[in-house]
Amino acid sequence: MNAPIRALLRDPADRVVVVGGGVAGLSVALRLAPRPVTLVTAAPIGLGTATGWAQGGIAAAVGADDAADLHAADTGAAGAGLTEPDVALRVAAEGPRLIDWLVRIGVPFDRRDDGALALGLEAAHGRRRIVRSGGDATGARVLEGLVRAVLAAPSVEVVTADVRDLLRDASGAVAGVVAERDGARFRIPARAVVLATGGVGALYAATTNPPGATGRGLALAARAGAVLRDMEFVQFHPTAIAAGADPMPLATEALRGEGARLIDERGEAVMAGISGGDLAPRDVVARGIFGALQRGRTVYLDARGALGAAMPTRFPTVAGLCRAAGIDPATQPIPVRPAAHYHMGGIRVDGGGATSVPGLYACGEVSSTGLHGANRLASNSLLEGLAYAGFIADALDAPVPGRLLPETDAVRGTPDLPALRALMESNVGVVRDAAGLAAAAETFARDARTCDAALVALLIARGALTRTESRGAHWRSDFPHAAPPRHTETTLAQALAGAPAADAVVGESVEQSVEEILAR
User: Fold this and answer.
1) 323 given a catalytic annotation
2) Digit-coded pLDDT (tens) for 73-101
3) Which terminal Cβ of the chain has fewer Cβ within 10 Å, N or C?
């Protein structure tokens, strides 16, 4: 019997549908055991996810000189005033336990000769706390371990299909998904749905994300009426390898932690005179490189010498990527540029991963938990997905669905994705201004009612236009200074326009309905 048919036979009173096959989705599926889970993945399990491409590692305060409060403080400093301190401390405190859990399911972390975990340093971390596997292959190793565990878990069934819509019951709660495979649509009713669909990087011409990272989960949530928060905050990784590939391969930040330097074609330091230098927070380094490129410079990551020679054993993933591009890092600097890498905004969730819509939860990059604020601290993304998987499993308490409403017949259009990506890159990129953002928003609005990618692009552009300040990863050349910290929130339905304001710690929220945005 094939997987979709088996899925239809499960009792929706017990089942939870998890959408997404990265670290967040796999972890939620495992943490919910022994409750039955149907895991829906757009690609065969283990493929098509950003998790497998993560090079840096998992931030965890496991060193003798480290502690959760120090990790939380670094997270808050990177978050530029929008990180919620209680969330940062709660997630940081989970780090050591999560590393132990991954070890128990068979993830082989790198260790020193004495058997202790080998800890790396990355930008804006005050301690060595980056736990790695296979040098720079942490994401792939963690993904392999989670996939093995999921395939062995009797409580989890896997369905390979695209999720096209969310089912609702008569009370308005989310009660399953509408999926499609090989042109055939089918329903998977459920007690609750957890979206773990990743980010938005593939909406940009230069990205380190898989092609499917176009914000599908954000569009599903918005069309279901969920509150979305801080959509304008997109992190650009400063050192994507500029060798013509799409998506762009990544030169991990850990290389700079081990001594690699950013130079231009004349050998001059790109980050000279900038606080933190090569180990400044990602947004600072990305703008430093962007500025150099705008001035006509070519930027390189220089690991020549001992670090480059040791790269095949210490950073085998980057070494392989360089080799494929015809670069020998022992003797040649690596050409780099910023590329869309991670989305700090997303579906607003509470401490148990619940969205504003009953029955709908979100985990990982698609969510906005309050951890990352305006700028994600390096290697906190895998940690967040792992931590919130447990929080969701502990808190999920959706009622048995009522009578299902008929699914919508909404037709999802196909955008001119190359043109959309080019416009996002030029107008909604590392440095932004009002004229460029307004022009982009006007273009995206034409297709946003029927096209998910255009809707998500519009929400990002409108959020960036609304935020008339520079903060973290959001930089406005026409508003270079910070304003009082606040969140921006967006909802689809007018009925949610009066959603609760953001935490008083960061001040008042700016609320817009997606309907208001589309009407502009």
Assistant:
1) no
2) 999 999 999 999 999 999 999 999 999 99
3) N
Q: CA–CA distance from 386 to each of 22, 92, 324, 496 (Å)?
A: 10, 11, 32, 30
> Hey, where are the domains in the chain?
238-340
User: Counting beta carbons within 10 angstroms of the beta carbon of residue 113, is it exposed (0 to 12), middle (13 to 18) or buried (19 or more)?
Assistant: exposed
* Cα torsion 457, 417, 19, 78: sign: negative
Active-site option among 141, 282, 376, 467: 282
CATH number attached to the domain at 238-340: 3.90.700.10
Q: 325-354 pLDDT, tens per residue?
A: 999 999 999 999 999 999 999 999 999 999
Identity at 3, one-letter amino acid code: A
End-to-end CA distance of the chain: 49
* Whole-number Å distance between alpha carbons of 143 and 124: 26
User: What is the rounded distance in angstroms from the CA atom of residue 192 to the CA atom of residue 358?
Assistant: 8
CA 386 to chain centre: 13
> Rounded to two decimals, what is the model's pTM?
0.91
What are the backbone dihedrals phi and psi of residue 127, each rounded to the nearest 5 degrees, phi first?
-140, 160
Sorted by sequence, the CB contacts under 8 Å of residue 260 that are 6+ apart come out as 278, 301, 302, 303, 307
